[in-house]
Amino acid sequence: MQNAVPAAAQSSRLALEFPQSLAVYDDYATAQKAVDHLSDEEFPVENLMIVGTDLKQVERITGRLTTGKVAAAGALSGLWLGLFVGVIFSLFGQGNQLATILSTVVMGALFGLIWALLGYAATKGQRDFSAVSAVVATRYEVLVEHKHLARAQELLQQRADLRPQPTF
Question: pTM higher than 0.70, yes or no?
Answer without folding.
Answer: no
